[in-house]
Hints:
Layout: H1 9-15, H2 21-32, E1 39-46, E2 52-64, E3 70-79, H3 81-104, E4 109-112, E5 117-120, H4 122-127, H5 139-144, H6 151-162, E6 172-174, E7 182-184, E8 190-192, E9 198-201
Antiparallel strand pairs: 1-2, 2-3, 4-5, 4-9, 6-7, 8-9
Amino acid sequence: NPDTFIETNAAWIERLHPDDREVTAKAYSDYITGWKPEYRVEFRQRANDGNWKWILSLGKMVERDAEDKPLRMMGTHTDITERKRMEIEMMDILTNLEAAEEQAGLGSWYFNVRINKGWWSRQMYQLFGLEPDQGIPGNEEYLEMIHPEDRELLARTLTQISQGDLPEKLDFRINPKQGGVRILSPQYRVEKDSTGRVVRFS
């Protein structure tokens, strides 16, 4: 109730989720000491009904004294509980996908034409003997991992897909960095917008 609610720093900290207190305090400290140019942090806070709500907190120092010590800060708290719920659900879906791919020996990928950015699943990296923190290989590096006899045909196939045409089924061989030859059997998909332009392929 706004008429009876009185906020204090101690009460605010008490309502924070124990796992979020340290990171929240650090975000505040880093901002007021000048280590970070903005105060922005996400944390869980217990609501009056006892449930936890995810909060996006943004703030700005609006007043300092003659010695540049902070006096007054203003900001906003935004309820992002629903967004966080969706993020957790997506992470669960991704985890299940990775487990299913690993069991089946599959890998998945896509390329978003609009933002010129691609994505590989964890199993896709494993198929090629790479680590996810290495990032997606560039075109030249990717083709170097393809069997020499299959590179030219695969390069033409990828160009065909990027132009919106689905090729006939094509198996190709790869030489993963951990050694040995593997045969991959890809299934391609092309997505187009209402004007027929390719927006994503995988």
